[in-house]
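Standup notes
- DV: blocked on the single-chain target, sequence here:
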Amino acid sequence: MISSSEYGSHSWELLVTVDHQHEEVQKEFLLRVTGDLHIGGLMLKLVEQIKISQDWSDYAFWWEQKNCWLLKTHWTLDKCGVQADAKLFFTTQHKMLRLRLPNMKTVRLKVSFSSVVFRAVSDICKILNIRRSEELSLLKQSEDALKKKKKKDKNSKEPVTEDILNLCNSPVSSGLSGSPGLYSKTMTPIYDPISGTPASSTITWFSDSPLTEQNCSILAFSHPNCSPETLAEMYQPRTLADKAKLNAGWLDSSRSLMEQGILEDDQLLLRFKYYTFFDLNPKYDAVRINQIYEQARWAILLEEIDCTEEEMLIFAALQAYHVSKLSLSSEAQDFTCESEVDEVEAALSNLEVTLEGGNTSNILEDITDIPKLADNLRLVRPRKLSLKAIKPYWFVFKDTSVSYFKNKESAQGQPIEKLNLKGCEVVPDVNVAAKKFGIKLLIPVADGMNEVYLRCDNENQYARWMAACVLASKGKTMADSSYHPEVHKILSFLKMKNWTMSPQAASDPESIDMKPECFVSLRYTKKYKSKQLAAHILEAHQNVSQMPLVEAKLRFIQAWQSLPEFGLSYYIVRFKGSKKDDVLGVSYNRLIRIDIATGDPITTWRFSNMKQWNVNWEIRQVAIEFDQNVSIAFTCLSADCKIIHEYIGGYIFLSTRSKDQNETLDEDLFHKLTGGQE
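- DV (later): unblocked, structure below
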């Protein structure tokens, strides 16, 4: 019998379940506690009762009914709201998780289930040696993709054994603040910028990291493509609505894995969520570059992003190059035979190979004199009831506007029309083989988008005008330092498209050992026979065969960035006052309202014009205010509205990054911009 004085007037019994592996020891404990007992004291009381000698430092209380962790050990039970009906689970904070990377490889590692996802992804990226973790996040696979996988497993006669890379012995996985693997805060070059292999001087670092030579090879290099049959069995979105489903599963960055229903050993996708690849440098980013390349490659193969046949062949040629050069060659994976290069010379020659277009020109612009373009172009205006009217005019491009005149002589007078390109959509309309160099402009007007086409005569003219249009759409002029790199990038992409059939390639389509069906989407395997495809790919291959490995990957990423749909994440929404559903495209610098039936853009809103955005959590409605008293509001039908809110805030957060900052991120600012104060 226990006396009433021992009970105390305010004590009660609390049931705690302990997650441990000792079968002979009970798992449920009834503790007598009072409301002023703090969480740390409860842990001590529990561990004393368990009587198992082990390290309990990674354990914490999980409150299942409230779906939350009790991590503030100085808080009392009263302050936490814990009462007699509460059931607490004493479990480890770090648990095993399977992550499917962009290259479709699965890694298994220990991840914090109690940290917010933003911090958990940062730890994962340190293990995998991927810089700029803020660009990535965790994604639940879409239900349609899971259904297709289950169907495939059901039809498979042999049991499916997934090849999993185990990184569970990593320092970060163990809950310790471990070594950063190959991640160098001193920014010493750790990869060869040409081949992407670890630099010989840093090979000894691998011993402290879960990224052994073999593991680094799996993450930093491309491997043979899957068979066409495997490709056919994978989920491929057919409509905008299907594409919207792909983006519904992003986890909330401000909450932990456990709070979002993720269980130990579940599988999630690690993906680049934000398409702003900052400070991409081959000296430090071999894994990051390869994973971006792989995400781009699969997006094209599975038709998650549309491209023309000409572009598809370029992508196929670059892939064929990788497979033939890397996977079939043991030399590229020889880590130890790296020739010693003078560090200063290497630093000068590879100072900045970025996606801004390789070796950027360092010409200092005269900021007082904004350049202008003036040339003869053809104007095309689509007409609903007749053929397109194509007329030549004298065009002048200045600041962010295009004016056109009847001829050069009349350019001193009033223009026929002046088009302000700020906030417009710029879409390439190019077929190099047919000598077609067009620029499609979708200019915002009161009732939607005004469609105008400009036709150029040649590649150089097109590159200059296209670059000017792209910058003007972002509110920048040709005086901006990014103008010349943009021209260079466009010309290099056109050069890749401009191939000629060499007699050798034509006569010997087997000169590269490949299955051409592995490098293109299913649409083109149905359209062409295998030998025809091989011949077409080899034609395109002539222009890329001399590229170093890392440059070829960067060119692939650059070509992907040039596609009109690049960086758009789709959601099905219902705008306030509208009677039908629309698709909302979220990009790094704008929102686009798209007609769900036709896929045509209706209106574009730029983040640069945005004054504020918020969420009405009661009716789950996102409201955004722009300049000039423009405001929109919508509810999200294909996903939680928090996902779109986080996307907008995330892109604005990423726009605050600068190269002179150190590698640490302002996590509080991220949560302030993306949290929505729910």
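- Follow-up: The longest helix spans residues 309-327.
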